[in-house]
């Protein structure tokens, strides 16, 4: 089978090569995301795979279908980049990699929580000016004293909850799906109750109409003063204007985000600081705000699994088979 792999990064290439040697299938890689302009390059291929934050509009699926493509295998969890109805109208099957490494994202979220609690940014900035005093950053809080609300208790949220529980934190879970096995380390509750009780709020939910702009000003008005916010999920979940206001008023003690709305304009790119969005320029000057370039997933284990699982699913779906990673609605 011949597979066209869009938006391939150098880190993926060794795993692509190993997968080809193991399976005997051929993979041709492109460095660009799948768009209307290059969808036609899939002509002559049996399957396609991509990872991207750039949306794929309806014409993409029509072009792929006209060239005999019956599926798209996404090498990531979030599939809001798909126009699912448009894909289905062209009889194109879709898949994502729902669990390439939940630990990677959970560990990174925990890392950023510790950064905020321990005032690491304040201390590092002070030391850069020669100030090595304890007062430069201030005293930290210990994690066992905290109540953490996890919004979205799927694979990643569940792993994060286990880590927090092991460290002694109280963990609240908000999710429409109840998982009995999580009761050992999570107290399931409502969103309003979680906001009222939590010292830390962490998002691990997909982006959909229910979660888009979920963390708006009304959301922040409900939280305890001095709460910490963590978002390693999707940028559009959090209203960044409301987040900035809440940091400046003290309603938020600190925040760490690995994703932002419209991140395609600057994430994974080199540019002058003055070319960044104005709100990002302001936020990154704050000692209690941590921004990272969508790297929570970025481990060797995760990249290996993303490549192998997506390519395996591409073969399966192109051959008319079934995979647990198929997106059905």
UniProtKB/TrEMBL annotation:
The keyword NAD applies. Keywords: NAD, Oxidoreductase. Coiled coil: none annotated. It comes from Leuconostoc lactis. Residues 4-326 form the D-isomer specific 2-hydroxyacid dehydrogenase catalytic domain. It holds the Pfam family 2-Hacid_dh. Residues 111-296 form the D-isomer specific 2-hydroxyacid dehydrogenase NAD-binding domain. This is D-2-hydroxyacid dehydrogenase. GO terms for molecular function: D-lactate dehydrogenase (NAD+) activity; NAD binding. The keyword NAD applies. It comes from the Bacteria. Belongs to the D-isomer specific 2-hydroxyacid dehydrogenase family.
């Amino acid at each position: 089978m011949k597979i066209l792999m869009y938006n391939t990064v150098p880190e993926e290439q060794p795993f692509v090569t190993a997968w080809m040697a193991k399976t005997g299938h051929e993979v041709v890689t492109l460095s660009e995301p799948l768009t209307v302009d290059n969808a036609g390059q899939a002509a002559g291929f049996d399957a396609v795979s991509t990872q991207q934050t750039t949306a794929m509009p309806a014409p993409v699926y029509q072009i792929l279908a006209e060239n005999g493509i019956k599926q798209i295998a996404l090498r990531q969890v979030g599939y809001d980049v798909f126009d699912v109805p448009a894909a289905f109208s062209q009889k194109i099957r879709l898949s994502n990699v729902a669990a390439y490494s939940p630990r990677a994202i959970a560990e990174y979220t925990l890392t950023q929580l510790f950064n905020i609690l321990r005032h690491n940014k304040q201390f590092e900035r002070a030391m850069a000016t020669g100030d090595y005093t304890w007062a430069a950053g201030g005293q930290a809080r210990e994690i066992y004293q905290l109540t953490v609300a996890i919004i979205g208790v799927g694979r990643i949220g569940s792993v994060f909850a286990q880590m927090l529980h092991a460290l002694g934190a109280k963990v609240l879970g908000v999710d429409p799906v109840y998982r009995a096995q999580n009761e050992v380390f999570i107290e399931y509750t409502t969103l309003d109750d979680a906001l009222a009780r939590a010292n830390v709020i962490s998002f691990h939910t997909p982006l959909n109409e229910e979660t888009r702009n979920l963390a708006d000003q009304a959301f922040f008005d409900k939280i305890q003063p001095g709460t910490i916010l963590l978002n390693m999920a999707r940028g559009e979940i959090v209203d960044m204007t409301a987040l900035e206001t809440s940091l400046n008023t003290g309603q938020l003690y600190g925040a760490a985000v690995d994703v932002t709305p419209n991140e395609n304009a600057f994430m994974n790119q080199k540019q002058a600081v003055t070319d960044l969005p104005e709100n990002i320029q302001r936020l990154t000057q704050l000692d209690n705000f941590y921004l990272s370039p969508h790297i929570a997933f970025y481990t060797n284990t995760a990249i290996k699994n993303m490549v192998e699982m997506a390519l395996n699913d591409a073969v399966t779906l192109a051959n008319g088979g079934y995979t647990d990673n198929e997106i059905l609605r």
